[in-house]
Amino acid sequence: MAYHLCVTAMVLAAYLTAAKACPSSCTCDPVWKAVDCSHRKFLSIPDGIPADTTMLHLEENSFQQVNSSQFSNYTKLQTLYLYNNNISTIEAGAFAELEHLSTLRLFTNHLSTLENGMFQGLTNLSLLDLSRNRILTIPDDVFSSLQNLEVLHLWDNQIIFVSLNAFRGLDNLHHLTLDGNNLTAVPTQSFQTVPKLETLQILNLPVTSLPAYAFKSLPHLKALHIGDWPRLEFLSPEAFDGLDLTYLSLYRCNLQSLPFEGIRRQWGLKQLLLYDNPIANIRPNQFYNMSQLEELYLNDMLLDVLDSDIFKDLTSLIKLDMSSNYFKSIPPTLFRKLRRLEYLDLSFNQLSYLPQQAFQTLHSLRTVRLGENPLQCDCDLKWLKVWEGKFTAKEIVATCSRPLKLHGLELKNLNVSNFICELPYITGYSKDVWAKEGEDVMLECKATGFPQPRISWVTPDGLHLDPDSKYDGKLKVSNEIVLYIQNVTDADEGEYMCLANNKGGSDKVKITLTVGEYPFKPSVLPQVADMQPRVEDQTKVMMSRTQQKRKKANPALVAGVIIAAAVLIGLVFVLVWIVRKAPIDRGLALRGSTSEEMRMLPSRDQTNENVALSFIETIA
Description:
Protein name: Leucine-rich repeat and immunoglobulin-like domain-containing nogo receptor-interacting protein 3
Radius of gyration: 46 Å
GO cellular component, one term: plasma membrane
Organism: Branchiostoma floridae
Helix content: 10-25%
Low-confidence stretches: 1-19, 521-529, 536-553, 581-620
Distance between the termini: 131 Å
CATH class of the largest domain: Alpha Beta
Structural class: alpha/beta
Membrane topology: Single-pass membrane protein
GO molecular function: signaling receptor activity
Number of strands: 35
CATH topology of the largest domain: Leucine-rich repeat, LRR (right-handed beta-alpha superhelix)
């Protein structure tokens, strides 16, 4: 008990001592020996900071310069934060007494020049952050006293030149960032003095070319970050020769093709970032011998067609991002070798259908992103919902686009019974067509169903045509529903069959094309065959009309029929006149009739008219 009381008293005494020594505008932590004087608009170091302070926060103040020996009283410092000030000058020897300092953050200040002696005495410094300043050049030997420095940040400055011996003395430097500067060429010669460098970050530069063996002086380099080089025009296939990388990025570099031969020589590569380049095609075997690759980013490119063999060598792949491209389909065997794949992003493409076979070997898959694709949630995609239900650990992000009743609904909120197909039904097609020899004819056929049926045609001689058929100058399927026949002849005459097919089934109708003289005024025949609605209860009528139109009209026969009809009509009129004028012996009709029956007898005129009408109806 006495021991615990003693320790408590010592801690309390330390707090009381620190409270007396701590500046009124700062916060002091005597246990961690940390002092926070940030956000106070100080122009210089405030008085009263304990001499044994190891961490000092002076960021977000109004310092304009760091004077020589300004920190000479704080020799215990290990971490010093001076970022977000207005520092434009650091005098030589300003940190000379801080031999224990390991971290110095000076980013977001107004430094424009680096001079020798500026970092004198910082023999144990491991991290120096000079990013977001206004530095223009890196002179020789400016970091020569920092023999234990491991991390150097120089990103977002205005550097236009790095001298040959700028990094001399940085024998233990492992991480260097030069992003966002005005370098038009990578200072490859300057890297000769940092042979232990493991990570080099050179993003967002106006570099126009990357020559062969650009990094040959960095044998220990493992991670090379290149990206946001919009002006890059040339990338040598040998640019990375001499390296043994595990990480390589080449994103957003305006590359229409990539030096896959050079990339393949990085046998141990595990992460490859190629996204946001205008690459439209990746050929088979371009990832040959990259069996160690675990992450591949091919998103935001122009890929529209995928070869089934492009990933066959990536047997260790765990993460694949192919989002924001333009492909409409996936080969069934595209992922067959990716048995270790856990994350797959196919969002923001033009996929309406996914082949079940493509996912059969992906036993390790945990996340599938399919959002922003025009997915048709029909019977052919039912497997995806079933698959989701079997593996609850999987995260499948997908939204239906069609049919309309499912538009915008997420896969996770649907049932298996929602995934159905509607049989094709031809709703309208061209009437049977007459055409003169030498004319052009267009036959139309429309159908409904889900998925939307695909229209194809069969000619009288058995030729199958669809929108993908090659145009031979005679027959062509256009707009997916129209059969175009150019310069018709007798050989084109006959029955044309329209076929409508989808995953649910098929439907068909026949259209007859007759070639010859018109049996009626040509002016009433359109060049494009009229569409007629399909009504099932008129099938027999339409078949009858079709049979009539198949027979060519005989002009002599037509004339004979017209003359016979005229003679018959004349005879009818004569007969009616005779009946009206001829007397009828009413006595014959009255014999044996009662008075009641006599009242029921029609008048003479009425009787004659009825007889005539009955005769006419019989003839008709």
